[in-house]
Amino acid sequence: MSKYFTKRGIEYLQRRINEKELKRSEIGAAVGEAAGDNCDWHDNAPFDAARDTFELASADIRRLRADIHDAVIIEIREQAEKVAIGSAVTVLVDGKDEKTYVIGAAHESSPEKGLITYNSPVASALLRKEVGDIAEVELSKKKKMELEIIAILPPSAKYKQLIDEIYPFPSGGKKYQNNL
Q: pLDDT at position 172, please?
């Protein structure tokens, strides 16, 4: 299944994979140390724990590589007519409370800051909608949430700043540059 990334998001994900591969190498050395000179793996709790950690790290790396394999690189457009990746969307929740969500690409999520990935239930319900539209989100079989779109802001309003926060570049790195 395709996953939508910005170019910067893919670069960041590749950096994360590289960091995890280095860490996995360290874990692999710990597995060998835990087995000892005699490769004693039978009834060896430290070996079992190190091996389990190694397997979890390997599974995480495989998952991230699969995401890159399925990646579709998108360009964030500076528009505010319809909800899209990069939009800041202000909604009226169940006709009462006002809330703003910023729609992010794959792996772009910081719910405490209002950034939600495009494939989350809320973002999925909002995508391609316009001001005045109502989106219904099923939270559980018995509970639904109604979101009335009252404003759509372009990526320059909030998205760029949030992405600079969650995709830090090494010291002296570039700020957001995604051809907006």
A: 44
